[in-house]
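User: Teach me something about this protein's shape.
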Amino acid sequence: MKGKIWIAVIMLLSLTAQAQVTRPDSLPSAEAVKSVADTLRPVIKGVLRPDELAKLENAEDSIPVTIMTDPGLPVPRKAAIYSLILPSLGQIYNRDYWKLPFVFAGIGGAGYMIHWNTIRYRDYLNPYLAAYDSKGNLLGDKFPVYIRGRDETLDLSIDQIKRGKTFYRRYREYGFVIMGLVYALAAVEANVAAHLKNFNANMNEDLTLRFEPSNERTLLSQSAPGIKLVLAF
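Assistant: First, the predicted structure itself:
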């Protein structure tokens, strides 16, 4: 009798494993799998001890799932690599062309910020270097500095020159930080977008939520009829 039961167990696991592979053309019909599984489960539960039943359920839950992706879908790893090589390549690979303006705006804005602050940083750096001789001695009290916003040259003290130099250097460094963040976010976005495209392609559009009869064992190893909520996708 137990030999027949184990044959039934093997059949159930085989059908379940086949049903968990996502290639549509290799699946048995859903009705056939459900019919056989519903037929075998009560027999198995009625014969096996609770510990054997627990092992069977754990083995069924641990069957690996193989996801067969469509060759036309983007590969997440490639999308991330392309975006790391050059921002926006990952979005082009994913065919998300509408996202390109956002990537270009982020990179262009950070680049302009770096350029703008670098020019003004040098406007203060050059007078600061010229204010000292080769021995480090200060050559005067005020020094001419070209102010680009006003398009004029003003005589500033060494403390004012230091503050201006520090201010523009700090914001130039912020520009580099923003550039790095945009670079990294573009790669992460390309990777996540590719994953979502594969998820949507492998997911069945027929989502159903239904009630089904249930026959579970209690702590006293007695059958307890009930109802379970099943989400199918």
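Now, about its shape. Confidence is low (pLDDT under 50) at residues 4-10, 12-27, 65-69. The CA atoms of residues 88 and 101 lie 9 Å apart. If you'd like, I can walk through any region in more detail.
User: That's plenty for now, thanks!
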